[in-house]
Amino acid sequence: MSTEEIENIARMQKAATQITDPYIDDYYHQACLARKSAGAQLKHYFCPTLIRDTSSRARSKDEPHAYLQVDALGRLPFSSIRRPRPLLDVEEASEPSDSTTEKSASKSLDQEPMLAARITIEDGLCLLLDVDDIDRLLHFSKQPDGGLQLRNRRQALLEQLAESLQLVDPLTSNKDAPLSQNDDLVFLRIVSLPKGRKLLSRYIDLVTSGSELARIVCMAVFRNLRFIFGNLPSDSSIAGTTTKLVTAVSTCIVRMDLSGLSACLAAVACSSQQPPLRPLGYAAGDGASVIIKSLLDRATELLTDQHVASAYSMQNRTLWQASFDAFFGLLMGYCMSKFDTVVHTVQIQPAAAAVISRETPVELLRASLPHTNEYQRKQLLSFAQRTVPVNSSSSHGSGNVPMASEYVQS
């Protein structure tokens, strides 16, 4: 072949296998450059030229194996999480009379709940990549309609993911029956996996702060504090996903208004499980306390700012106070129960004092103080006075006052 013919063939192959868009051809390298040179002028902005059509990427459920579509090069099969190839076909030995019953009772792999959860996670992460593309396109390009169409599409994608997670909004008008444990079943299956917590963290970061979606997803987290933050995993990489989720929820909380905070705190009080109200820095995990403290601090900020507080109606304040009263009763009940348990199990006073100082969520008590009424402050003082004989090695009352005041100082 002549040199010209070889060059023509090479150009044809390059045109069929490569695209001139660096965002697609060299995504990871361009992402590294954009991260290292944030704010600098680049030859190519790290953003897509157009948004992909999700309908064209949808795979048929009836297709036995998924394929990667490549122009002019046929189809390349790749592993699919939906229909994994079986490694070995095994038939269990059973009596002839029971064979029909066992076959009907057995489920295929694609019907297993945790596989469905993993499929939902993969689809959700792919969907959030489309949201990232929209955000970059809005940032680096000017849209003829001011970006209205892209923003509407972005909101539709986020709502689609909320439907996939089956997030329940108990404040909707058509929700007459109280929430049951089955309402959050799909959500809990997803967040039980480390990758599911990554998906939830990223989703909370992308949801518009103060929106209805932000409130709904945060209420789902607050309803299930015990399940999500009950025990910190020993694996550092898995524990990191929980820590990122705590940061994402706390960041979302500090941008909420008073009505959203009231709904989230009410979700804690109405939960069927006792939330892990631990002091900050607790070895088993303090994620629940961190986000609850962020909520209380945010409410304090809103109610003490005269310009902001004047905008809230009496109904907003009443709703907040009702939510806080329910939570405060839960918090005091936990503290009293923990104190009684320590006193009955630890007989030596110095040891009991050390246990109480480790177990009492003093940070939550202090964060609650600006919202307490006269009766609740008396409860706090009574609890502090009950701890005095345990916290003090002497029996003189004059030396016990500073120790008691530690629990109620703001």
UniProtKB/TrEMBL annotation:
Q: Which GO terms describe its biological process?
A: deadenylation-dependent decapping of nuclear-transcribed mRNA; P-body assembly
Q: Which InterPro entries does the annotation name?
A: Pat1-like
GO annotations of cellular component type: P-body
What are the start and end residues of every segment in region (Disordered)?
88-110, 391-410
Which top-rank group of organisms is this from?
Answer: Eukaryota
Citing just one GO molecular function, the answer is:
RNA binding
* Stretches with biased composition (Low complexity): 391-402
Tell me which PANTHER family the record gives: OS02G0294700 PROTEIN, TOPOISOMERASE II-ASSOCIATED PROTEIN PAT1
What is the name of the protein in this document?
Protein PAT1-like protein 1
> Organism source for this protein?
Triticum urartu (Red wild einkorn)
Lineage of origin: Eukaryota, Viridiplantae, Streptophyta, Embryophyta, Tracheophyta
